[in-house]
Amino acid sequence: MDSTVRGTIEMTAAMTILGTIGWFVVMSGQPIMDVVFWRCAFGAITLLIICAALGLLRGRLSLRIVAIAALGGAAIVVNWLLLFSSFSRASISIATAAYNTQPFMLVGFGALFFSERLTMTKLAWLGIAFAGMLLIVQGSPDAGSDAGPNTGNVGTDYFTGIAMALGAAFFWAVAAIVTKKLKGTPPHLIALIQVCVGVVMLAPFANFSQLPADAWSWSMLATLGVVHTGLMYILMYGAIQKLPTHLQGSLSFIYPVVAILVDVVAFGHRLHPAQIVGAAAILIAAAGMNLGWTLWKSKTPAGSTQAIK
């Protein structure tokens, strides 16, 4: 099988798995703190076995690598806590749309800390995403309109849910910036350190006195660790090694599409038309940012055959 085809299959599978995570979080019926703790615990066991099988534990760790990966791990854990908490407040669909403002967080960090240039195209995509966010907020069930969306039981603190999803995107961007410092370190090893940090961070807050009493809850938690962490990392990182960046970026948008479909099919959440337009605007803007789309044609100097981006 061609490596690009194999990578496409792996990335599609990884993003599909990731898109179902909200369902498993909700169906576990556990407090979010416990959900994230057990995801980290089961994920750590899975990734430890994988790293040992791949020989990644032999002399690769230095104090610097562990410290930087641990810092990224702390950001990832806060990211999971905020994102999972947002599902019950703003619905999986809306939380996922707000969460996909991640590329703009990265652009902001790049401009602030790395002196990266903000082009008019990037600012235009940012403006479109911001307009989409305004549409989502205006379409909320708390906006005071009789034409509110039929979103099902999205909770009364809708705005808090959106804020949590945006906060999750912020901490994901922090983790991404930190992880850039670990170039050359096997990603499976980085992921192992990150989930181990999660276990240590959340152990004091996990409710060990009232563990899940049924097999269903344990199966949901184990799936989050083994499948949505261990297996998903294997598939995603395997795909990244095989695919060009533009194809990785385009396939990554399978995740929000699947998440929104799961929300509609499994929980019957229906969005107001304004929210649909807003979510679509954010996803299109994020795709444009990731894939380098332009909103207008640049003039090419006479005698030049190179397009200006």
Q: Percent of residues in helical segments?
A: over 70%
- Determine the N-to-C terminus distance: 35 Å
Uncertain runs are 142-155, 300-309
**What's the count of strands?**
0
Tell me the overall shape. Answer: globular
Order of helices and strands: HHHHHHHHHHHH
The number of helical runs is 12
Average per-residue pLDDT, rounded, comes to: 85
Sheet-strand content, in percent, reads under 5%
- Describe the largest sheet: none
Radius of gyration: 20 Å
Structural class: mainly alpha
Secondary structure blueprint with pairings:
Blueprint: H1 3-19, H2 21-28, H3 32-53, H4 63-99, H5 102-113, H6 120-138, H7 158-179, H8 187-202, H9 215-242, H10 245-251, H11 254-267, H12 273-291
How would you describe the overall organization of this protein?
- By secondary structure, the chain is mostly helical.
- It is built from 12 helices and no strands.
In short:
The chain is mainly α. It has twelve helices and no strands.
Key terms:
single chain; 309 residues; disordered C terminus; 72% helix
